[in-house]
UniProtKB/TrEMBL annotation:
Molecular function per GO: oxidoreductase activity
CDD domains in alphabetical order: carb_red_sniffer_like_SDR_c
Annotated Gene Ontology cellular component terms: cytoplasm
Protein name: SDR family NAD(P)-dependent oxidoreductase
UniProt cross-references to InterPro entries, sorted A to Z: Fungal_SecMetab_SDRs, NAD(P)-bd_dom_sf, SDR_fam
Cited Pfam families: adh_short
The organism's place on the tree of life at top rank: Bacteria
Amino acid sequence: MPLQSFPEGFRALVIGASGGIGAALVEALRAEPRCASVIALGRATEPALDLADPASIERAANALAGQGPYHLIINAAGVLHGTEFMPEKRLADLNQAQLLATFQINTFGPALLLRHFSGLLDRQRGVFAMLSAKVGSIGDNRLGGWYSYRASKAALNMLIKTASIEVRRNQPNAVLLALHPGTVNSRLSQPFRGAEIGRPAADAAQDLLRVIDSLGPEASGGFHAYSGAELPW
């Protein structure tokens, strides 16, 4: 499905390109006939970008500025669990190391992406989309648990909303979005029946691109699901 809202020959950046959804987004954009360039960024790319390394974020933005402006920038990186921790089920599970590790990737790193990359957006049609999560919705929280993940995504949503207000002043056509990809069969979701209840990453990528394509500057700062539905904060 051609992305009709973007100009012929548009340029895209995908951060977190080694993850399941990130890799699927890169593949989908490379197959998009209107897309002239897709740059995949991650810890092992050149330039390297590590969300836990603020200096690498600034270096990557500076290195890529000359190839811009970019019509579409997507951050698909995120962390829910690691080799040393799983999502907390109760208050007694909370610990500072896990909170810091989760916020570093889901919140602090993306905040610096907003700082260094938002200025690289094309002034006529520029979208900066960040993968958030429905469990980051405060209004939709019915089950509790997953403290650091929920809080880090709620904070990410606030950063995107706040940045959209500032960016709009100088870049009125910019669109900053928080997107919920749904449950996808990926490393992030596999410990939580992701392989059983999740859909393929390629399907999620197509859904996300379809939503991005449908949203204009009036939607900047919004929180949307892969279906296009607006989600509560």
